[in-house]
Design brief:
With 81 residues, the chain is an all-alpha fold. The chain has one domain. The chain is 83% helix and 0% strand. The protein contains four helices and no strands. Helix 3 runs antiparallel to helix 4.
């Protein structure tokens, strides 16, 4: 299959999914992304607690939203203390 054929097949399959299937797929992809980020954080900083890792993942996910980052950093500071 060429790249165009692959793209067309992907689009066809996406259009065939119900809204519930699309939401389920999106949720699964987000969960996978969070797991991968948590693994990388744990590899880099093995001494972090599960709670600290959770907030570090959130920090990376929302790094482009300054108000959210501020809230996450406040929570992270209380967890780290």
């Amino acid at each position: 299959m060429s790249a165009t054929e692959v793209e067309l097949e992907y689009e066809r399959r996406c259009r065939a999914m119900s809204p519930a299937e699309k939401m389920s797929r999106s949720a699964a992809m987000l969960a996978w992304t969070r797991e991968q980020m948590a693994r990388r954080i744990r590899d880099a900083e093995p001494g972090l607690s599960d709670e600290e890792v959770k907030w570090q993942v959130a920090l990376r996910l929302y790094e482009s939203e300054p108000e959210v980052v501020k809230l996450i950093e406040e929570h992270l500071a209380s967890v780290s203390s």
